[in-house]
Each structure stands twice: as structure tokens, then as C-alpha cells.
Amino acid sequence: MVSQISATYGKLKTEYTASEIAAVNVDKRQHQKEYMEFWNCTASFTGTGRPVDAIIAPLAPFAAARPDMYDYYGTSFVREEETDCYAVG
User: Fold this and answer.
1) Which residues contact 54 (CB under 8 A, 6 or more apart)?
2) Model confidence over 25-56: pLDDT tens digits?
3) Closest Cα partner for 36 from 77, 85, 84, 81?
4) Is the pTM of the predicted complex or chain greater than 0.90?
5) DSSP string, the chain
6) Which residues, in sequence order, are CB contacts of 7 under 8 Å at separation 6+?
7) Is 67 exposed, middle or buried (0-12, 13-18, 19+ CB in 10 A)?
8) What is the distance between the terminal CA atoms of the chain, rounded to a whole angstrom?
9) Quick one: how far is CA 25 from the chain centroid?
């Protein structure tokens, strides 16, 4: 394993069985269904009566990074669902 990856994620873990993967997929689909129902109910909060189209969030917690001083490697936007995500610069 590459040292940068092992430093972040640790040692290799055992692989999941097909049954474990199937169970995760069932849970994932249930979560996605609940999330979609929530997203669609945002129509009751908007002025147009339509659901929210998008969430615009910053890519970093500051306007510009100084060369060789960029220590922030996280993200300020967590994408939980299988949706399109774009970064425009």
C-alpha cells in the first residue's frame, strides 16, 4: 500500500462477503429513498413551490491558498447521494 494511503487509512482490512455487500446495498437504497423524500419535501419551504435545485458550498474554508502553505485537505461539502457534483473555478 502507498505510504500516503496507509498513513491515512491504516492497514488493509479483510474483504466483505457477498452477503455483507448485499446488506450494505439494501441499507444504502433505503437511506437514498428517505433522503429523496426529504429533498422533495423542500418544495414546501421554497417560494416557488418547487424542490431545492442545488446546494452551493465553498470548496475550501478560505478564499485563496498561499503557495506551499495549503494544509487543509478536507472538504466542506459532503455528498451522500449519487448525484452530480461540479466545481467551477
Assistant:
1) none
2) 999 999 989 988 988 898 998 889 998 887 77
3) 81
4) no
5) --HHHHHHH-S--PPPPHHHHHHHHHHHHHHHHHHHHHHHHGGGTSSSSS--------SSSSS-PPTT-----S-S----SS-------
6) none
7) exposed
8) 33
9) 17
